[in-house]
Amino acid sequence: MLSKYRHRTACGICGGSGLSLILDLGKMSLANAFLKKEDLNKLEDKFPLKVYFCRFCSSLQLLDIVNPELLFRHYNYLTSASRPLAEHFIKMGKDLADKFVASPNDLVVEIGGNDGVLLAGIKDRSRVLNIEPAENIAEISRKSGVETIPDFFNLKLAEEIVRKYGNAKVVVANNVMAHVENLREAFSGVKKLINSDGVFVFEVHWVGNLIGEGGFDQIYHEHVFYHSLTALKYLVEGLGLKIFDVKLVPIHGQSMRVYVAEGKEVKKSVATLLQREKKMKLNRKETFVKFAKRVSKNKEKLLSLLKDLKKNGKRITGYGAPAKGNTLLNYLGIGTDTLDFLTDTTIFKQGLYSPGMHVPVVGPERLLTDIPDYILLLAWNYTDLILEKERELRNKGVKFIIPVPEVKIV
Questions:
Q1: 283-302 pLDDT, tens per residue?
Q2: Which of 21, 170, 222, 315 lies deepest, with the highest CB count within 10 Å?
Q3: Is residue 125 exposed (0-12), middle (13-18) or buried (19+ Cβ within 10 Å)?
Q4: Confidence check: pLDDT of 1 > 70
Q5: CA-CA distance, 361 to 342, in Å (whole number)?
Q6: Other CB atoms closer than 10 Å to residue 243's CB: what's the count?
Q7: Tell me, what's the pLDDT at 251?
Q8: Residue 250: cis peptide before it, omega within 30 degrees of 0
Q9: Strand, coil or helix: what is 60?
Q10: What domains can you pick out in the chain, each with its CATH number?
Q11: Which residues touch 72 (CB under 8 Å, ≥6 apart)?
Q12: Are 264 and 242 in contact (CB under 8 A)?
């Protein structure tokens, strides 16, 4: 892909043409393309952000595909900057090692392993290898003692890994299989890695949560697919693999942890979730049309609330500068006329400005000296933890605004 983006016309899972536009969020800057102060007056790249539904395989996806070199070669997201997320992946790594690693010589490969949090926790129990295309993040992974290849995963790279390291007992990918445009090639590469003896375990945000208890702000250019188990089953089985287990886990709202292999016995959990998705009508276009209408109502309600607060002289800041927060800010047009600043624990983002709306990002310590009246909680997926953490601020009268899925003040 030589251009900055292209428009795909066929479904990325089944190859069909039965695609319907569900939600148009307009043209947006890339959600992680934070700006330096000297770049604020430069023209930002903006790309269509539209979501489509495939009536043949029930997949929800983007068709406007941004060049991954723009998205992932330099990345401002660190897993270790989020304590709940880091703890989740450390535990996941231990669980996978307990279940599937038999000896220290077994190989565990992580696709898009970020700064190596998961693999660092099990590198004394197996050989580990991180495939992380963001060169700045790959260097951090190496410093944690995890061997890291700074490249995009594909079938060719999988073949090279097998030649150099042998087959993998476990391949893991967290919040990655929604980012990959060519899923068929990615799964073919995984199949090559695990051969007939290994397992592939990956987590993706579940579309059932996206349209229910989750929020539309989890839609951005990095997320090409919004997965249901129904659509994934179609893809996986078409490549000669099978999903043998699945769990819903409380991360990013609600994610699916999917277990794939060639010859494992399929557990009841797979049929149970498939049936649940059928009852939720995740295979019906009308379900997602209703979701789009709720998004529009959410926008009206949140903008009305913020406008009233500013009219009454209230100071508002934002808590967190996650990618999903930038979808929300840009879709609603919320900038520095509404928010004084955003706080975030990721050091790469501090001192920069949010893409599109140019809200300054500062460290969380700013809230100790510059206390607002209201805080827009952009990292809403950690609401309970944050509200407990910021009990002192709340005792001082600071109110938190939860923006999705329903607008409320706590």
A1: 999 999 999 999 999 999 99
A2: 170
A3: middle
A4: no
A5: 5
A6: 24
A7: 84
A8: no
A9: strand
A10: 79-286 (3.40.50.150)
A11: 133, 134, 152, 179, 222
A12: yes
